[in-house]
Amino acid sequence: MNMEKKRKRGLLFLMSVVLGGFLGGFVGMFKAATESHEIMLDVKVLIPWISAICLVLGFISIFLTFNFLKKSRKFHSLYQEEMDDDLNETYYVQMYRNLEFGTIAFNSASVAILLALFISGSEVIVLDISHITLSLSFLGLVLVLNAQKYLFKTIAIVRQFDLVFFSTPKDILDHFDSYDEGERKANLEQSFLILFQLNNYVLPALYFLIALFSLLTGEIQLLAFLLVGAIHIYINVMQLPMVKRYFK
Predict the structure, then answer these.
(1) Residue-range definition of the domain harbouring residue 6
(2) Which of 79, 113, 119, 244 could anchor a disulfide with 91, C-beta 3.0 to 4.6 Å?
């Protein structure tokens, strides 16, 4: 068993070395090709498209938020009225399932609309374009605030827990404690996996993408490197309170 694990680790290390060498060679050849053909990426051309895409994704996510939350309320009503145990179980699952889908859609909408708002705002200030996208982004922000209100009301109905508009970490922890044991366990496992993937896959991949973007634009994306690095350090350093709390 131990030999099998060692062999797998050895293969994983070898694959990492080979992949690293391949990526290094690819970046080198790509850099040489771009320099020989004098290819440089004009970011200004892409910015309006990026803000527009974020805006569209934001509006789609807002629609999905209201749709899922409406379904959650519907199943909650059916759950309260139904006496059959089998149907009650189905309604119970669908009620919470749609509530969580709605929460995910709302969080996605918030990110997309904020991105659209700040990117289009930068376009107006720096490039003096994209006034329509900025106006629509403000409309999206209003819809997001309404979606948040609708979400919190749905949580109050389904989970019997009132969240304030500007919730503190303590409020969110209290809300988390209102979950049943199985749901808490599933959330903790998923949170651990997300943190692991961020730390080991997503953020390291971003370093490579930023480096590639630097090659395309001909400018070192220092701020992007610093931001990703700060996030990378933050998610690791913030494990310290947990260690101090549980390993006194």
Answers:
(1) 1-37
(2) 79
Whole-model pTM over 0.70: yes
- For 63, other C-beta atoms within 10 Å of its C-beta total 14
In the structure, what pLDDT confidence band is assigned to residue 22 with cuts at 50, 70 and 90? low
Give every CB contact of residue 95 below 8 A, 6+ residues apart in sequence: 72, 75, 76, 79, 158
Distances (CA, A) of 49 to 31, 54, 243: 25, 9, 44
Alpha-carbon span 144 to 150, nearest angstrom: 10
139 close to 55: Cβ distance less than 8 angstroms: no
Amino acid identity of residue 210, one-letter, is I
Per-residue tokens: 47 = 């910015």
What tokens does 133 get? 């996208």
Q: Are 68 and 98 in contact (CB under 8 A)?
A: yes
Residues 84 and 187 in one domain: no
